[in-house]
Amino acid sequence: MEQKRTKSSDIKELRARKQALRREMAEIQTEIESSLTEVRRSFFGRVHYRYWIEKYPLQLLGSAVVAGFLVARKTGMRHTDDFSDAEDSSEKKAPSSLGLFSGLLADELKKLAAQRTVRYIMKRIEEAVDNRNEEEIHTDK
After folding, report:
1. How many Cα atoms occupy the beta-carbon half-sphere of 50 within 13 Å?
2. Angle between helices 57-82 and 97-140 (to 10 degrees)
3. How far apart are CA 10 and CA 18, in angstroms?
4. What is the DSSP string of 105-134?
5. pLDDT digits 0-9 by tens, 21-34
6. Are the beta carbons of 95 and 83 closer than 8 angstroms?
7. Whole-angstrom distance, CA of residue 115 vs CA of residue 113
């Protein structure tokens, strides 16, 4: 009789340990999943362009302006080379379709960048004004 009790108590104890291990594994798995989700969010947040714009707005704006001037200067030179007059060279050059396309593409990209920059700056200004108005409302009370 006593041997049966020890076997059944051993089996119950093993089952209880098995359940405890399963619960612990589930908790560990949940912790790992939440940690991975947090790491993924942090990584993709830092890769996303908005993170960098919010962290370094003036530096990026300055870099965009400098890059815009450099691209404009380079594509502007290409346009004048493509459409040069007969007086400047012995034979008239035909505009290359690649140069024309890249110039048009560069112009459109510059317009798009300027529009997005203006929208972003306006959004930041509006947020600052709203925050200032809220602070004034709270200090008046």
Report:
1. 6
2. 160
3. 12
4. HHHHHHHHHHHHHHHHHHHHHHHHHHHHHH
5. 999 999 999 999 99
6. yes
7. 5
- The model carries a pTM of 0.33
> How far apart are alpha carbons 63 and 71 in whole angstroms?
12
Place of tokens 């908005």: 50
CA separation, residue 18 to residues 10, 23, 59, 92, 117 (Å): 12, 9, 58, 87, 59
If we measure between CA atoms, which residue out of 40, 39, 104, 52 comes closest to residue 76? 104
pLDDT at 14: 92
CA dist 105 and 103 (Å) reads 5
Number of Cβ within 10 Å of residue 52's Cβ equals 13
